[in-house]
Every structure is written in C-alpha cells, then in structure tokens.
Write a structure and sequence with these properties.
rod-shaped, ten-stranded antiparallel beta sheet, alpha+beta, Glucose Permease (Domain IIA), two-stranded antiparallel ribbon
Length: 264
C-alpha cells in the first residue's frame, strides 16, 4: 500500500460568495517555488552589486559631458586672457622703454651729493660745423637722447583733439636744445604746456618746447643753434615724461618732421 504524498490545501473564500475554492498544492512544489524565489532574490542582489555602479556611472555621463564642454569653454577664455595679458605686458615694456623707465642712472650721479654735469657730445675736429651763433630757421633735432614720437601733429579739421606739434618720449631730465638760433619770446608755466620756452626765429618762425622740468634761459635772451634751453619733464597736461615740440610760421603750426632733418 503506497503512502499518499504530502500536500498543502489552500482554501479561498471570496467575499459575499457561498462557495469556496479549494486548491491542493504538493509540498515539493511549494519548496521548489520558495527555492526559485530565493535564487531569484540572490541573483537580483548579485546583479545589483555588479551592475549598479555601471548604471550609476552611465547616468552621470550626460552631466560629465556638460562639465567637459563648460571646462573647454573656460580653457578657451583662459587662453584668450593669457594672450591679451602677453600683449599688455609687451606694450607695457615698450612704454617703459619709451618713457625712460628702464634707463639706469649713472652710479656717479647716485653716489654723490654734488650735482653732476650732463654728458657733452664732442664733435670731430674735421667734421663740418653749422652756424654757432646768429638767427637761423629751425633745422636741428631738439634732443640728444634717442626718443620715440608717441603722437604726431593733428589738425583742427578732424574729429580728434587738435595737437599742433609732436610728442617725443624721453626720460625726465633729458637735455633740450634750440633747433635754431633765435631769441626767447616767452617762457614760464602754462596749464597745458607746463614749463615751456617759446623762441623767435627768422622769417617769422617760432619753436615751442613744452612739458619741461627746468628752464635754463632768460626772457629776451639770444639763443644759439643747439644751445641748451631746458630739461625735459612731465609738467602741465602730461601723462608721461616727454617733450612737446612745435614749429610755427606766421602763427600756423607746421609738422616739425618736414623741416627738422638732423636726428629725426
């Protein structure tokens, strides 16, 4: 006589129904179902542990791509700013050179309390000489130091501010010479020109030297061509050390570069 297999009877009684439904499930089926569900749960845990980081990393990819794009744009701006900074530094070095910021003072001048005379340019004995005295029209260059013309002549018929002469960037204290023989018409201090000297020359020529740091001539004095009349500076309406130089004839401003050939 065979032994009946073990089973579990499940009775389902719906609400409001008079009859119930009975299901008989073998125990081995329940055990297999339970084992299958446990295996599925373990597999889900393993899959979550293995693929969870990958899923999270994949979810972060769009955000990382956005950050990479933003960083690339920031790097492009940094490169532009670096190029602009290099350009500014280069222009700053040029301006320092033009205004004499890199000129090293003579150690003898620095180390002594006594005034030291400026260097004198000597001329060879057989070199041709120009007129040393008398009235002459403007022909010389007003400076011994090499300078840079930072602003040219601007007429009154343009949209820019009128500028009747040229600006020559040199260090403060550079020697300023008369470009021709003449007489001192006027000198003093002006809000625009600062310390200035105005000379009269033949044929109704005049020359103006502005933004000086020191005036070395007297009113009405006769001045020989090449005579030292002052020292350059930064006085008056000036943003950097330079010499403002004008040539006028009959009250009309001329471009000095069309007349002065020596040293230009």
């Amino acid at each position: 006589m065979t032994r009946a297999s073990r089973a579990v009877t499940i009775v389902i009684q719906p609400d409001g129904a008079t009859k119930s439904q009975t299901y008989r499930v073998p125990v081995w089926v329940l055990r297999m179902g339970t084992a299958f569900m446990a295996a599925a749960a373990v597999a889900a845990v393993i899959l979550g542990a293995l693929y969870g980081p990958l899923l999270r990393a994949a979810a972060r990819v769009p955000g990382l791509e956005h950050q990479v794009t933003r960083l690339e744009a920031d790097n492009a701006k940094v490169r532009q700013l670096s190029a602009a900074l290099d350009s500014v530094e280069s222009r700053y070095a040029q301006v320092r050179q033009m205004i004499g910021g890199d000129i090293v003072r003579d150690p003898l001048t620095v180390g002594t309390a006594l005034p030291v005379a400026p260097a004198v340019l000597a001329r060879l004995a057989d070199a041709p000489r120009g007129p040393a005295v008398g009235l002459t029209i403007p022909r010389r260059w007003p400076l011994d130091e090499p300078g840079y013309v930072t602003r040219g002549q601007v007429g009154t018929g343009t949209s820019d501010e009128a500028h009747p002469g040229i600006d020559i960037a040199v260090a403060v204290g550079s020697i300023v010479r008369a470009v021709g023989g003449g007489t001192v018409h006027q000198l003093g201090e002006d809000p625009e020109y600062g310390f200035f000297v105005l000379l009269d020359h033949p044929d109704e020529y005049q020359t103006m030297y502005g933004h000086l740091s020191r005036i070395l001539v007297e009113p009405g004095a006769s001045v020989a061509p090449g005579q030292v009349i002052g020292l350059s500076g930064n006085s008056g309406r000036s943003t950097a050390p330079h010499l403002h130089f004008e040539i006028r004839q009959k009250g009309v401003s001329l471009d000095p570069r069309t007349m002065v050939k020596e040293g230009s």
